[in-house]
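Researcher: Let's try something more involved. This one mixes different molecule types, so please make sure each is placed in the same coordinate frame as the others.
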Amino acid sequence: MTWLSALWSLIKKLLELFKRKQKEPEPVSEQYTREQFVEAVKELSNDAVWRAKILKDALNKLREQRTFETKWVDRDSILTQTIHRNFGCGLSYVFGDGIYAMSKDDWQWLISTVQQDAIKYVSEFTDCDNFATFFKGFADYIAGKPVVIYTTGLVFIPAEQYGQKICLCKIDYFVGGHGWNRIVTTEPIEFQKIGSTEVVKQDFTVYNYEPQSDNLGDRIIGNWCYMNGGYLPVIFGKR
Amino acid sequence: MKERIYEWYLENGEFDLELLNLIQRECFNKPLTPTGTISWQELSDLLNRDKRFNGRLALRWWWIFDEQYAVADKELIERILNEIKDINNVWTVVAITQAVTGMNCGFVGKGRRIVNGIITEEEVDVYGFVVSDNGEVKLIVFDSSGKEVTENDVVIGFVVFD
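Model: All components are placed in one shared frame. Result:
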């Protein structure tokens, strides 16, 4: 009899516990707001190691925002275009056999998402070549493949833009060595070969991209003319 | 607590472009003071003395270079690299590291794998940094998988100092 009553008492206690458990409210799941997240980012980003993590996470999230349709363009085809459109005959791009082209819409989206204008320009330490590296490093990662050309060369101000007052003898004003980017879009283009009447048609277009100002352009952006490798056109005034 | 909020939101929160832009801007433009600086000539001498670089003065290839480069603290660079170790794009690793420190101490490059003492045709993407290690200025170099490169692994034929 004793063990039966002990068993019954145990069952009752278990039932009571079970009922109480059922009546207890569910623990509130952890939830944080966007504002709390922003505050956390602001505080954590005071540490350089955290900044690296946060930036990497942001780039990963940007990758999820858009799917890019890309098309491979080989190095020789790009060089054909840059030579005959007077961009210069050197790509200063020795890291691969070519690059992926994307639509201009995709490019405009990508350019607008990379916020490198927030990086402070410091002569020598964070200047043109650094900005060119930032854009290649970030844009290639977001696109998931190599889409940006890192390039170096010369920039000058064409005589007719610089003005006769300073630019004597109609010679272009040499600005200096420079680092910038080139990108390739899927727009078709036709151009005439230098020293020939032959017209070449290609299904991609090369652009210069100035990462310090987010400007995309042809050979001239603002009042700078960009050229790399093969400087004879500069010397002989053919632009 | 901030860490917990960050990790929770990263996993569960909504991210639009406005938020992602704000995050980037918080991470940029908080430059650190470098341990020191090194001139282009000193850096060239360092490269020339380093057997991994095959005695080449790769910098002269480029029409653009800086007169001064930052020297970063080795431990800081290693901690940052550890945080982004899953990124295997050499340009992205250098871009992130330089953007969050504000130091032009990094470079990317190309090397060839050495197997049994023979330089093979296999190309290796590399990246590296100018660092101060107990007061001594050194070049630390890694392949795209994050493995540190020694003179027995890879001979580096080309570097782009940023």
